[in-house]
Amino acid sequence: MTVLLLNMEKQMQKLPEAVQLIEKASMMYLENGTPDTAAMALERAGKLIENVDPEKAVQLYQQTANVFENEERLRQAVELLGKASRLLVRGRRFDEAALSIQKEKNIYKEIENYPTCYKKTIAQVLVHLHRNDYVAAERCVRESYSIPGFSGSEDCAALEQLLEGYDQQDQDQVSDVCNSPLFKYMDNDIATVDTWHIEIPVVQLLRTCFVTDSMLSWA
User: Fold this and answer.
1) Phi, psi for residue 138 in degrees, rounded to 5
2) pLDDT tens digit string along 70-93?
3) Which of 13, 85, 180, 209 is 20–30 Å from 163 (CA)?
4) Buried b vs exposed e over 137-154: b needs ≥16 C-beta within 10 Å?
5) What is the pLDDT of residues 126-180, one digit of tens each?
6) Which residues, other chains included, contact 40 with Cβ-Cβ below 8 Å and sequence gap of 6+?
7) What are phi and psi of 98, to 5 degrees?
8) 127 in Cβ contact with 105 (< 8 Å)
9) Could you tell me which of 128, 134, 120, 54 has the C-alpha nearest to residue 90?
């Protein structure tokens, strides 16, 4: 067992070096006009390093997304942005997570996947409230009214109730929204890598809202 652990430790120590080599290779692929291969290499590097250095993995996933976006392959780009968003939330890097989710949302809007925009809005609002930024959360919902179908959706109604409860510091109302099936169980039919939950304090005394993996990966 001790030998096995030592071997595992040695392999983990080699990962950063391996990732660096993959990054260099991806640059060569780009220079040689093979962006698909470059993107595959960068994504592979992100997967390799994700459990060891999540911050580096975020950077690699974002680089991969940029390659796909430059090639106008938006569906692939937004998938990689989603991976970056989840890691940012896990790491409680909420300022960056809010920006990343907004980028996802913009792409989903561009490809006219409006229902996913609604779900990304929920994730955005919870992240903003975890940052104690009610203004940003409210603005996020207000700006989403321009998305076709959002204003009449159950997602919109729930978010309006959540923001109202937050503004009035009504714990019961906030708890009811956060414990509703829409928030707790939405899109559980979507296959996810894991089922992690990040606790989101909506007001200082509340600990009932979560950003779930499905909220961030729903598509």
Assistant:
1) -65, -40
2) 999 999 999 999 999 989 988 889
3) 85
4) bbebbeebeebeebeebe
5) 889 888 889 999 999 999 999 999 999 999 999 999 999 888 888 888 888 888 8
6) none
7) -60, -40
8) no
9) 54
Amino acid at 84: A
Buried b (16+ CB within 10 A) or exposed e, 11-21: eeeebeeebee
Cα–Cα distances (Å) from 143 to 105, 118, 138, 204, in that order, read 12, 11, 9, 26
Q: How far apart are the C-alpha atoms of 38 and 76, rounded to whole Å?
A: 13
Helix (H, G, I), strand (E, B) or coil at 197: strand
Return the structure tokens found at 34.
């093979």
